[in-house]
Amino acid sequence: MDTKTVVKETEKKLEKKRPQKNAEDKKRVAFWRNIFTYLQEYRKNAIIAILFSALTGVAVAFQPLVIKYIVDEGITVRRSVSYVSIACLIYLAIASMRMLFFNSALKHVLTALEGTLFNLRCKVFSHVGHLCMRFYDKKSAGELYNCIMGSPMTNMRGYLQSILISVPYQLVSFVISLVALASYDWVLTAIMLVTAASMAILNFLSKKVIRKASRDYIAKESETSKYLTDIFHGMDSIKMYSIENDAEQKFSRYLTEMRNSGIRHIYSVHKENLKPEFATYLGTAVVYLVGAVFCIHRGLTVGILYAFLSSMGSILSTLTSWLSLSLQKSAADVGMAKILELIEETTSTPELPDEELCDVKESRISAMESGKPCIEFDNVRFAYDKKQIFGSLSCAVKFNESVALVGGSGSGKSTFTKLLMRLYETDGGSIRVNGEDIKKYHLHDLRYSIGIVPQSPFIFQGTIWDNIRIACPEASNYEIIQAMEIAHVHEFVNELPLGWCTRIGDGELSLSGGQKQRIAIARAVLKNPDILIFDEATSALDNISEKHIQQSMEELMKTHTVIIVAHRLSTIKNVDRILVFERGEIVEEGKYDELAKKEGGAFRALLDCVENS
Asked: For residue 518, what is the domain's CATH number?
């Protein structure tokens, strides 16, 4: 390989590295910009904390000077108990002021620190809450919990606390003590500076090791949290399949990796801290030796040596703290990188500016007057990552029409409803509600106009009343009770000692699948939406409850646009139209009786499967 080729390849490698370095620099700038943004509300507390911390540093620096006068003047020269007593009182006064200043600084810094983390957590939670479902397909609940409440925030807290309260008083103390040392003896000061330089070099060499160990530990902690959350959510399945031992062994493996990574992390930090610590001991020993020689042969007083050693200890302690802060920042950078990763996530369902949005209610009135359909899919294309669901789906649903979606698993029925609610963005084509593209509606308004009864409803922690009212917080008590009656919730609520005040949810009273679905139906009814979606809403109900709710659904079909995702075909005999899905396409449509009589049809095949099962 000739010289020109080597030079060109080297230049290419450098060009590849430059963008990465620029990206890292931008992220570092973004990190500090974010911190200052969230700290802005508490800047007054931060400033007061820094001022009190600086005053603490003045007191810390002057304490050794008082000791010098006690030893040299009070004991060696004057031999006066009264002089020493006054000096000791001054020492106590300075110490008391030091404690008072630090206490005030700590009070304000905690207010600023916890307020900043509060704002940051709220920002992350709010941002994540507005991301699309594609994001949640990639991120687990455990991973998100760990990022918001785990090590990333803990590392940031420790780093910021040191920046706001430790650095100011240490900086003031460092400067005053350094000036005092130089006035005592320049040789001893030079020895101290060489010691400090050695500590700084050793610390710089340790950064890379600490950063890698911290990154590995956070990754293992995140993986363990993710698995643990999944286990708790799926505990019923674990018990049904009798795989408790397998789950325990797998968790033990995760925990072992996290434990080993934690040991490596803590030990690495300790081992790297030993290097500058040893440099401190070595420098102090040299100062003792040289100081003793100067006291014997050059007339250096014991008080000055004692004050020098005390100030030197303060300086090296401050330097050690700063070097530890540098290592601490490496761990905080890793944690903040994960937080920024979430904050910088973009949604695949962005919203238009407010001035370009349409009003759902006004669009509904206009569409009904002009004879437009309530729902319209126009050549919609969609895929989950690389798995295509819809190639070119087109269909329309009229106002107050009841439509059932049937087909095998994976045919696209539930995806149809998710796209309608814009939980995912289409890859092509358009979806219109009330004659307008759903992208022209505010996400909240679009989804509020749609009531859904999912197959597996989520129950929030709280009372039964709260779980129903959550769908429409401004609803009156009469409206909530009416929704309960329509969904036949009162049939099981009346049997509970506390009635609708009974607490349910995680860790509280467990409900059956049918009871959960009745609560979900009550939620949907309470919203009184324009469009109702029933995703196999009666699948977990007994025959009597199913009959009652079926009647309620048929009443709602008269005044609402209703979409029913059905597996139990007996529940859709009275719908206006049935759409039969196969591999993301509508292969048949019509009324129940028409499709049931069609020999060789897809719907007839589904009926035959049900009868033979």
From this structure: 3.40.50.300
